[in-house]
């Protein structure tokens, strides 16, 4: 395992993306990075606001088990997070990413196609297809992203042609060593609302 800097942002954002690098650890073709959510986010019991995100580099997807149960908005409302209405978290958030690799630095840009993957038997839920369809990506990036997303589904969710009750490899086994590392991975970076 080796330390890496991870930079995150939306597609088309100039570097620096988040404003400074996030601490990361890379295990072969799989890095993990962390950031702390602002105080307006309430974590699940037994968790902190520190969110660890894993990246499957060859597929360009990021995976996280969201640490937030709910969020307080500026006007005082409470908005549930992923699974916020359940007694415990049971869903992974999977992001399609554009990955740029440099020596000890990884730049990740969001490509809009996300999917919620529950591990409790509920159906997966695609997100942001409308943003992807808005045409913010050049055609080559969009096609590459769709192909990588398809490979992710084939490798990790459903290898058989028809729906199955079991997942192929989800969450991916290759995340286990990085998931077992104690937090934090390095200096904690807090992101803003």
From TrEMBL:
Q: Which domain of life is it from?
A: Bacteria
What is any Pfam family matched here? DUF402
Sequence ranges assigned to domain DUF402 in this UniProt record? 91-136
What is the name listed in the Swiss-Prot or TrEMBL entry for this protein? DUF402 domain-containing protein
